[in-house]
TrEMBL record:
This is Arginine deiminase family protein. It comes from Sphingomonas rosea. Keywords: Hydrolase. Belongs to the DDAH family. The lineage of its organism: Bacteria, Pseudomonadati, Pseudomonadota, Alphaproteobacteria, Sphingomonadales. It comes from the Bacteria. InterPro entries: DDAH-like. SUPFAM superfamilies: Pentein.
Amino acid sequence: MPIAFTRGLSPTFAACELTHLDRKPIDLDRAAAQHAAYEAALSRAGFDVVRLPDLPTHADAVFVEDTAIILGEHAIITRPGAPSRRPEADSTAQSLATRFTVHRLTRGRLDGGDVLRIGDKIYVGQSRRTDCAGIVNLAGLAGRLGYEVIEVPHEHCLHLKTGATYAGVDDQGRDVVLVNPDWIDPNVFEDVFLVPSAPGEDFGANALKAGDRLIYPSAYPRTAERLRMLGFQVDEVDIGELEKAEAGLTCMSLIAD
């Protein structure tokens, strides 16, 4: 059974790091309920949902994707761009060591949310959270595992996967990338079919491929319809409260399939 690693919401979640959004009040009970519904969607998709240890004093700990990159039987532990988040990566490393061969980045800054894998290509966003040194370090490690790393500069959103995600293979056999072309240059992606997020749905380019379906934010119905027209099974969930912390669907899990 494929595994989705998650981590519970910290009681300090409202004090999360913010880069592009203004801080707004967060209803912690509602956010926790939305996170539970997200985990339920992963279970519906056929995943064994494994909770990593809670980190109650780390506001951003629920965004577990930023702390590791899973590549088959290997896990590369990142160096999150916000120094306050480095202990999260240490906790993730300890938990994954029993299941994967663990490697660690030792230089630069890199958030897992900036890492988008399509086959043997790994697109990495250079952002406020991920720098050139971190990308070079990842390229060395991933290269030895058979992956090519491609740098993607961006500045209009938090992470690369805030504005572009891999949706999977459509009903015509094409690899599909969902993208907000105002935030991420679509021309960087090779040999894929590009689907732009609908006008007015700027955050609609973040979808989580989970087995044979897509978990998708319910706030972007026109983009969801575009995906359904390509043959994707879309499971919509509400993450509105979590989005106040610059959350995306992908950032709240580590997928091992």
